[in-house]
Here is the input.
Amino acid sequence: RHPYDTARGTIALGVLLTLVLAALVRLLAG
Amino acid sequence: MDMLLDLTVRWAHFIAGIIWVGHNYSSVVQRPSWQPLRAEELSDDRSPRFQALLNREHGFFRWASVVTWCAGLLMLWRQGWLSDALALQGSLAPIGVGMYIGTLMMLNVWLVLWPHQKKVLGLVPASIDERLRCSRITHLSSRTNTMLSIPLLFFMATGSHGGLL
Here is the structure.
């Protein structure tokens, strides 16, 4: 199944993307 | 007067954003798991009244996305923060990331979701097979915005309460 096919998968991807982007911002712009 | 304008723009940003993302979240709550649409579930009510009703409902959150985006840009511009946010400079990097995510979400609504949704809803003539194919695309497009709203809200929060990142 595609991660978007469940609410849980969608939220998990969103949280994962948040962590990745936050780490990048901290690394590059912090 | 300037303060009143800034407050009004910020207020509009919040209200329009809640209408837009709230509509998206309500669809997740109503249909948490993907269920393929069946041909008999496609609405075929061609009455002008029903079509206008559908158009208004979808138009409401579609235009809310434009108001949200414009108000967000206007806020940054009036504060003199727009160029640094665009360049992801220093303390404005978080809100800049939020701005880019919000822009992607708005473009997704207008350029991916809406053209396919028009076929699913029967606002644009399409075969049953085409409408069923489009319903999968609208699902993925809508959930992309659900997913993107999570980092968007994070960067909005951290951007206005600086120093956390």
Remarks:
- Residues 1-30 of chain A form one domain.
